Amino acid sequence: EVQLVESGGGLVQPGGSLRLSCAASDLTFASYNNAWVRQAPGKGLEWVSEINRDDGSTTYAGSWNGRASISRDNAKNTVYLQMNNLKPEDTAVYFCNVRDAWGQGTQVTVSS
User: N or C end of the chain: which has fewer CB within 10 A?
Assistant: First the structure.
């Protein structure tokens, strides 16, 4: 059974940065497109970013506007999401997603 495990969330002040990590068992990230999705309190799932399996190209939701960077370390079989200039509205649980596999999420809280 595929397991995705996110880490790196926490409490950060507005303008701060966090790097989320996603590790997997029984799955090779480089074989699939990898995505980050978030869920803010009381809201539905919102796609954040994706990295392409074939050429490593990346896409982002418009709200991130250059504040996020998704990457993948194939040697470590880990996907990252670097988030900068965080805003209170970025507060959410962030999930790693590969096809139909999901992690348990990591909480990101942006507050002063």
Answer: N
Q: What is the pLDDT along the chain (112 residues), one digit of tens a residue?
A: 888 999 999 999 999 999 999 999 889 999 999 999 999 999 999 999 999 999 999 999 998 979 999 999 999 999 999 999 999 999 999 999 999 999 999 999 999 9
- DSSP state letter for 75: T
- Return the amino acid letter for 12: V
Alpha-carbon distance of 95 to 102, in angstroms, equals 7
- For residue 72, CA distances in Å to 23, 50, 88, 109, 112 come to 10, 10, 26, 24, 31
